[in-house]
Amino acid sequence: MPRARTKARKRALDILFESEARGVDPCGVLVQRRETDDAPPVSDYAAMLVEGVVAHRDRIDQLLAEHAEGWTVARMPAVDRNLLRIAVFELLWVDEIDDPVAITEAVELARTLSTDDSPRFLNGVLSRIADLAVYLRTTR
Q1: pLDDT of residue 1
Q2: Which of 50, 61, 88, 127 has the smallest number of Cβ neighbours within 10 A?
Q3: Structural domain tally of the chain?
Q4: Is the pLDDT of residue 106 over 50?
Q5: DSSP assigned state of 140
Q6: Distance CA 73, CA 37 (A)
Q7: Is residue 139 helix, strand or coil?
Q8: What share of the chain in percent tops pLDDT 90?
C-alpha cells in the first residue's frame, strides 16, 4: 500500500501543479483526469488529496507563510509549494498517515522533482508544522 500512496501523492502533485500553471481550478483538472483514460489513473487517495488541499488551502497557505522562514508562499517554487500543501493536508487532516511518513514522502518527491535545496527546505517547514500538529488538529 505505501507504493500506491506514493504514486497517489505524485499524481495529486501533477494535478495541482497543472492547475496552477494553467490558472484553472484544481477540481476541474481532477475531473478531466478522472474522465479520460489518462495514465497513470487518478486513485481515490490522489483525488482526496487534491480535494483536501483545495478545501483547506487558505489555512494551509497561512501555516506555510508562518513557518517558511524567509519565504512567501508565492515565491516558493511551484513544485515545493504544492508538495508542502499536500503534506500539510496529510499532517492535519489525514489521521491514518503518521506525521513522519507525510514528511518523508514530501521530501523524497522534492528530491526527485525539485531543486537541490528543496528537500532540506521542505523538511524544515514540515517539521515545524508537525511540532505543532497536535495543537493545530484541535483548532482546524
Answers
A1: 46
A2: 127
A3: 1
A4: yes
A5: -
A6: 33
A7: coil
A8: 84
15 close to 51: Cβ distance less than 8 angstroms: no
C-alpha cell at 122: 521542505
Helix ranges (DSSP H) in 23-77? 26-35, 44-55, 57-67
Residue 123: which residues within 8 A CB-CB, separation 6 or more?
Answer: 103, 107
Tell me the residue range of the domain where 127 lies: 2-138
How far apart are the C-alpha atoms of 89 and 40, rounded to whole Å? 22
Asked if residue 97 has pLDDT above 90, the reply is yes
Residue with cell 508565492: 74
What pTM was computed for the model?
0.93
Spatial CB neighbours of 40, under 8 Å, sequence gap ≥ 6: 7, 11
Q: How many residues can be counted in the chain?
A: 140
Give the CATH number, domain containing residue 25: 1.10.940.10
For the segment 24-48, the average pLDDT, to the nearest whole number, is 89
The per-residue pLDDT for 137 is 72
* 56 in Cβ contact with 93 (< 8 Å): yes
